[in-house]
Amino acid sequence: MGIAALAGDFRAATLPPETEAFREEVRAFLARALDGLPARDRARTWTGWNPEFSRALARQGWVGLTLPERYGGAAKDHYHRFVLVEELLAHGAPCAAHWIGDRQSAPLLLKFGSEEQRQRLIPAICRSELFFCIGMSEPGSGSDLASVRTRAVPDGNGWRLSGTKLWTTWGHKADMMIALVRTSGSAEDRQKGLSQFLVDLKAPGVTTRPIMLMTGESEFSETRFDEVFLPADALVGEEGEGWAQVNAELAFERSGPERIYSSLILLDLWTRSLEARPDARAKDLLGKSLARLATLRAMSVALTARLAEGAAPVVGAALLKDLGTAFEQSLPRDIADMDLGPADPELLATLAYLHQISATFSIRGGTREILRGMIARGLGLR
């Protein structure tokens, strides 16, 4: 790929003027829908599970915003989706229930799925009636997706699935999983022999176990498959296409503003607290933080433009995710080092929550080590 090609992913781009009217519409809706929601809850934003909010958003036509109208979508462009996501995150909307289906699963099915799968599943995603999770990481594999061992073997007119998925976001509450599994060869074959399947998480043989985090909450889960029968039409695309599918999917996951805005509610609260307490050291941190945020946002807008062009900026998305999560993680730590004085209890509660949870930011969506390996390969350095 090389440096020149990677730089192409980040060619300067701006949001079209027509998206601003849409932004105001979204803001008005969120002001009503989130009235009275505490900042600590807003800090959960795209990891906060609230099916009622997701269904309210769907009634606005804003779940599946870029999907074709024939499947229940709104047929808007990626720029409109960027604006929607940015406002949801900036306001701290609880989006976890519909997030993965909207961001990844529906676009994946649109590109690789059968027409029967599209008609059956995508409209339900757009109505927030069907919630998805992604089964990628495994014990002993983590973000090294090419080493997955969960296996599906042919069985009559379908498949039998056995294995374990780990660190699955909201796997214990979702309805369905799109799982990356091995259908031929062994883990030593790496990317070869991988396929993706639709798995009903209520099917016999599926068990899920929530994983307790240090916050006392359970956002992630472990999912085990014990000889789970999958019908033939559970296969997404062609057998052996799983690696290409996952790479296209992760470009959506890693390129959006959710990879830079996870601590935005805290930054907003802290900034407002400085209005009453001028502090040179704090202002220096604020200036540096806003400069980093503006740069990362410009990079995310640029990747949105590439997606709008039909590209899949895999390496560029990996770079943004690495830089973005480093920023997200640094904010709670840096703000905690400031003199907060007689701080607002809401600020302290939000800071405490993000200080605890921020360690996960560089794990979800691919660990820092894996992403940097991808970037190095893209630049021809390994």
Question: How are the SSEs ordered, and which strands pair?
Answer:
Elements: H1 2-9, H2 19-33, H3 39-42, H4 51-59, H5 78-91, H6 96-112, H7 115-126, E1 132-135, E2 151-155, E3 158-169, E4 176-182, E5 194-200, E6 206-211, E7 220-231, E8 235-236, H8 242-255, H9 264-274, H10 280-308, H11 314-336, H12 345-357, H13 368-378
Parallel strand pairs: 1-4
Antiparallel strand pairs: 2-3, 3-7, 4-5, 5-8, 6-7
Helix pairs in contact: 2-5, 6-7, 6-8, 8-11, 9-11, 9-12, 10-11, 11-12, 11-13
Q: Any overview of this molecule?
A:
- With about 375 residues, the chain is an alpha+beta fold.
- It folds into three domains: about 10-130, Acyl-CoA dehydrogenase/oxidase, N-terminal domain (Butyryl-Coa Dehydrogenase, subunit A, domain 1, Orthogonal Bundle); about 135-240, Butyryl-CoA Dehydrogenase, subunit A, domain 2; about 245-380, Butyryl-CoA Dehydrogenase, subunit A, domain 3.
- It has helices spanning about 1-10, 20-35, 40, 50-60, 80-90, 95-110, 115-125, 240-255, 265-275, 280-310, 315-335, 345-355, 370-380, and strands at about 130-135, 150-155, 160-170, 175-180, 195-200, 205-210, 220-230, 235.
- The model has no long low-confidence stretch (mean pLDDT about 90).
Properties at a glance:
four-stranded antiparallel beta sheet, 3 domains, alpha+beta, 14% strand, Butyryl-CoA Dehydrogenase, subunit A, domain 3, Butyryl-Coa Dehydrogenase, subunit A, domain 1, 382 residues, globular, Butyryl-CoA Dehydrogenase, subunit A, domain 2
